[in-house]
Amino acid sequence: MSDDLRDEQQFLLSSLRDLEKERAAGDIDDNDYAALRDGYIARTAAITREIDGALLEKAVEPRRWVRRLLVSLVVIAIGVGAGMWVARSSGQRLPGDSATGGIEQSTATMLANARQLNFSDPSKAIEIYSEVLKLEPDNPEALTYRSWILALTARNATGSVKQLALATAVTDLLRAQKADPDYPDAHCFLGIVYFRFLDNAGMAQKQLQVCQVQNPPKEVKAFVEAIVKEVDAAVKRGE
Predict the structure, then answer these.
(1) Residue 138 DSSP SS3
(2) Chain-centre distance for alpha carbon 181
(3) What number is the average pLDDT over the span 109-118?
(4) Residues 13, 19: contact at Cβ < 8 Å?
(5) Residue 228, C-beta contacts closer than 8 angstroms, at least 6 positions apart
(6) Is 46 exposed, middle or buried (0-12, 13-18, 19+ CB in 10 A)?
């Protein structure tokens, strides 16, 4: 396996983390952030697929869940940036534009279909959420639940595959929050991801506090209530 590919992969993953820090500090505007992020994710997904796909081909029994995760990452990478072009070129709604009944009905149906597949067929659900985002690039529900499924799928992954999946999930959950600051699910799931997958109780606590104030739906609230005490205890311990 080419060391050059691995070096580029690590550079891109590091660049994604640095980009989020620059955005949080206000050192980069939204347009530059989006362009850089989209490019980093697309290239990292392609490299990760090439590296890990080759390793899987050598395995006696390739792990299907790893393949599914790689496919999901590629689906997201291919869709990155395409949604904005599709929406503009077809006259469809973007933030600030007026919505048409046809588009609203289409995305509502797609979202309903995706919800039914969240746990029974997560790869298919991710595909549908990605299709929604081609029509509405800032749809908070599609961004949130695609990210949540991706994070859950990445739990058993290792190395660069897991890093890329979680980096993509976190950045898209932040996008969902920016698209709709009053959408509680994005705060709830980002809090869980920070705590369960990234071991950052402090950042998790802030997100979960916002989540609870915004009164999430009962099924999401159940997830949050299950870990709030753990998060608070971890913060007190300085973790």
Answers:
(1) coil
(2) 16
(3) 92
(4) no
(5) 208, 212
(6) middle
Eight-state DSSP code of residue 28: S
- Ordered DSSP codes for 163-187: HHHHHHHHHHHHHHHHH-TT-HHHH
Q: What is the pLDDT of residues 58-81, one digit of tens each?
A: 443 445 544 554 445 444 544 444
If DSSP codes are grouped into helix, strand and coil, which group holds residue 118? coil
0.70 surpassed by pTM: no
Express each pLDDT in 193-219 by its tens digit.
999 988 899 999 999 999 999 999 988
Q: How far is the CA of 59 from the CAs of 1, 6, 55, 64, 163, in angstroms?
A: 14, 19, 7, 11, 22
* CA distances from residue 187 to 53, 140, 174, 216 in whole angstroms, order as listed: 33, 11, 8, 9
The structure tokens listed for 40 are 């980093």
CB 55 within 8 A of CB 5: no
Cβ-proximal residues to 233 (8 Å cutoff; 6+ apart), any chain = none
Evaluate if residue 90 carries a pLDDT over 70: no
Three-state DSSP class for 217? coil
User: At residue 86, does pLDDT exceed 60?
Assistant: no
Residue type, 26: G
Nearest to 146 by CA among 106, 102, 193: 193
* C-alpha 16, offset from chain centre: 13
CB 36 within 8 Å of CB 42: no
Other C-beta atoms lying within 10 Å of the C-beta of residue 84? 16
Distance CA 9, CA 167 (A): 13
